[in-house]
Amino acid sequence: MILQALCDYYDALAQRGEITPPGWSVAKVSFALDIDEQGELRRVFPLKITAEGSKKEVPQSLRVPEQQKRAVNICANFLCDNSSYFLGIDNKGKPDRTLKCFEDAKVLHRNVLDTVDSPAARAVCAFFDAWQPEQAAEHPILLPYLEEMFKGANLVFSVNGLYAHNDPAIRAAWENSRAASSAGASSGLCLVTGRQAPIARLHPAIKGVQGAQSSGASLVSFNAAAFESFGHEQSDGTGQGLNSPVSEEAAFKYGAALNRLIADREHLQTIGDTAVVFWAEDAEPLNQDIFSCAMFGGTSEVMTDADLRSAVRALAHGDPVDVNGISLDPENRFYVLGLAPNAARLSVRFFLQSTFGRMLSNVQAHYDRLEIVRPAYAANGALPLWRLLNETVNPNSRDKKASPPMAGAVVRAILSGGPYPVALLEQTMLRIRAEQNVTYGRAAILKAFFLKNREFKVPEEVLAVELNDQSNHLPYVLGRLFAVLERVQSAANPGINATIKDKYFNSACATPAAIFPLLTKLSQSHLRKLEGGLKTYFEKMIGDLEGRIHETLPTRMSLADQGTFHLGYYHQVQKFYEKKDKGGNENV
Predict the structure, then answer these.
(1) How far is it, in rounded angstroms, from Cα 445 to Cα 124?
(2) Which of 75, 279, 327, 422 could cross-link 70 (Cys pair, CB 3.0–4.6 Å)?
């Protein structure tokens, strides 16, 4: 299903004229070798450009003949490759192998271009015939650029001011060569298209996934004899891949589409170790813009924040939206794919599909569940996913990323509308215990988790946005009471360095029967230091909370009860920080 969705996306992009045709790909090219019609090297043109939003120079992206997949094997690319193949020199310390690379490139270009009646074709063939790799390292034209070339920079040929790969006769020869090679491939029923076609032995390399090999990793691959079982063995190796046949056309399409998605850094998101890409079935990029802002935060370059929120609400309710003359359909199919590095391959962390409106509805419901009273210093707006996940990370650890499996499970839960993973609750509670700090983000996670995961049976009365001062739910009341006792201590001892929170917070939450009698006794000593209205205010508050306890304090509280304790504590603390109550009186 993943490959089929990517192939459909390729077809939609092709209809819009926004993707390379079969047999072609986009590569990053650093230099052009300018040769005359006799094949003599005249000059080297640097092709690097200044990256947008930075002063750094980066290779230029050019549409070139499709790049071959290679690891340690020698396999030349047509009209776009590195110095090992085009010049026969590098700094890898294996001169014999480098010469073989050059010879392989020479054979490839001779096979494709020998019969082509074009000045550019004759020039390229003449270059490979006349070039002497043994003397290349001292060539005066190359000397200023060798250091950069040895880093693996891609090179192309330029003849009479035009790239050789753009010559019409050469393009036709290349496409004929591809068709001829496909004719020799094993034919079968493609599992993606359902049609008889030449079957791909090797699948395209997917580049740009953080943590994977820089040369590209495989989403689909076969590299052992076991994959040639069930009578698919072939002496020439063409039986490889026949157990799960994907046509060469489908393999090219899904590879081109996926590489395009990953190269789109404006929409690519990295969650933990997972690269997350997303697309609409009709390839309308505005769907990606809206989804990216809604799910991951940020702003849109084509819409104001108000228009964005309005569009998300309308689409989530199933209403079509028109943005700058572009009509967005909530019934449009939408896909989200998470890929994680795994040696030379890619692991599919998750693949989700639904209508665009349903996806946004699930995202909106997630952010509604997260809504909770926030401190004055907290930024307005929804709690973005990256901040939510950061609440589960140890700030003192070297790796500041959330657990990859948990992060992937959270994304799946949000987009599918399913329950949150229990690991999210466990990691949040772990950070609260370790730091003795119920932050805004952690309180929001607890509220959202208990609202969605109803098997934990936390009453909804304590899962409100603000303090529910009428609730008698014991863990919630105990959390509120702890916040009040802490406040009493601080009022009685201004400037105190350590409060009861530093010493008793975790134990009061886990084993209240053992700790609260001690805290109550301490509070009496603190109250005696207070005078007047402040003392009366706290005495009434403590009396009210203690009056809501109608059962024996538990010797140990469950994880859900501890989370509810934290919510009660957080709500009460935020209530203390309210500037004024409804009557205009200052709160303590």
Answers:
(1) 62
(2) 75
Q: Among residues 552, 264, 310, 276, which one has the least CA distance to residue 412?
A: 276
Compute the Cα dihedral for 516, 518, 522, 527 and give only its sign: positive
Q: Exposed, middle or buried, 43 (CB in 10 Å: 0-12/13-18/19+)?
A: exposed
Which pTM was predicted?
A: 0.80
Please state whether beta strands 60-65 and 24-29 pair in parallel, antiparallel, or not at all (unpaired).
antiparallel
**In this predicted structure, what is the pLDDT of residue 179?**
79
Maximum Cα–Cα distance across the chain: 103
Q: Is 194 exposed, middle or buried (0-12, 13-18, 19+ CB in 10 A)?
A: exposed
Q: Write down the H helix ranges in 354-465.
A: 356-370, 385-390, 404-416, 422-435, 440-452
Q: What does the pLDDT look like over 38-90, one tens digit per residue?
A: 999 999 999 999 887 778 899 999 999 988 877 778 999 999 999 999 999 99
Sequence-distant (6+) residues with CB within 8 A of 160 are 37, 119, 120
The pLDDT value recorded for residue 582 is: 43
CA nearest neighbour of 232 among 205, 204, 199, 203: 199
Q: Rounded to the nearest 5 degrees, what angle is found at the Cα of 324, between the Cα atoms of 318 and 327?
A: 35
The span from the CA of 362 to the CA of 420, in Å, is 12
Alpha helices in 530-558 (DSSP H): 532-547
Q: Give per-residue pLDDT as tens, 343-376.
A: 778 999 999 999 999 999 999 999 999 999 998 8
Above 90 in pLDDT, residue 188?
no
DSSP strand E in 187-344: where? 187-189, 196-198, 205-206, 217-218, 269-271, 274-280, 321-323, 326-328, 333-342
Alpha helix ranges (H) inside 58-187:
83-86, 95-113, 119-130, 146-149, 168-183
Q: Tell me which residue of 22, 24, 17 sits closest to 7, measured CA to CA.
A: 22
- Where b means 16+ CB within 10 Å and e means fewer, 146-156 reads beebeeebbbb
Could you tell me which of 368, 250, 266, 248 has the C-alpha nearest to residue 312? 368
Q: Other CB atoms closer than 10 Å to residue 118's CB: what's the count?
A: 17
